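Input.
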Amino acid sequence: MMEEKLKQIGDNSSIQTMTPVSGGDINRAYYVKTEKQEYFVKANQNTADDFFQVEADGLEKIRSTETIAVPEVYYYDKSSKNQEMVLIMEWIQGKKTAMTEQQLGIQLASMHLTYGPAQYGLDKSTYIGKLPQTNGLHNDWVNYFRGHRLQPQLDLSVQFNRMNQKRRLKLETLIIDLDKYLPNQPRVSLLHGDLWGGNWITGHGGKPYLIDPSVLYGDHLFELAFTELFGGFSDTFYTQYKESLPLEDYYEDVKPIYQLYYLLVHLNMFGEAYGASVDRILKRYIW
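Output.
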């Protein structure tokens, strides 16, 4: 099957190596080497027909800013037809240099300074991990964040039995009162949308690359808050980022709410191990 996919992108040479590699919790991933080229391949048989197309579109949107590198996408299946779907991309491999995280900070800030539509959100639905995310374009960031980020995760957590009554009441109250805490009209920035430490890699010459996006237009502080949640970014990264794009003085006030969204995603995907962290943030805002 893989040979047939590669033929569609003009590689008619034989496969020399196809080795499983770590590729996250959702997809199977492979290093594929033909006589012509090396590839990174994702495969999944249990996902929506547009799953890989959404990822490819997000990578292209980031690439179009000409600010930070992403892997080139060569091919993706648009329909499963009850078979395994694949995404074929450029193979990226390299070692960090003393400049890698400095470049990452500068280039991510440059991406966040890229102006897209004068609205928040996106004109198509996406995924966060394996969870679907609705989207839409809004003139108000709070309305977007309420309706397309926090509320859907609350709904899922109720569906998945992740919400005890106390947690649910606090989260519902926070969602209603969100205008008290978040800015209505922050700078509109293109965001990667799922930028934890595992979603950037190093290429040839120490060049940083972003991978696995879940793009949207929104408050750049939303992105920064997630980078701090699970680590994977150095002091050098933050210093260079802030020199290029200083953080608003209310960052520490909104950071927990922005992190709450990603903790709810993890609660819904992986279970109660993330419940205490969700409750800690809710307690900060809702007594």
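The mean pLDDT is 95.
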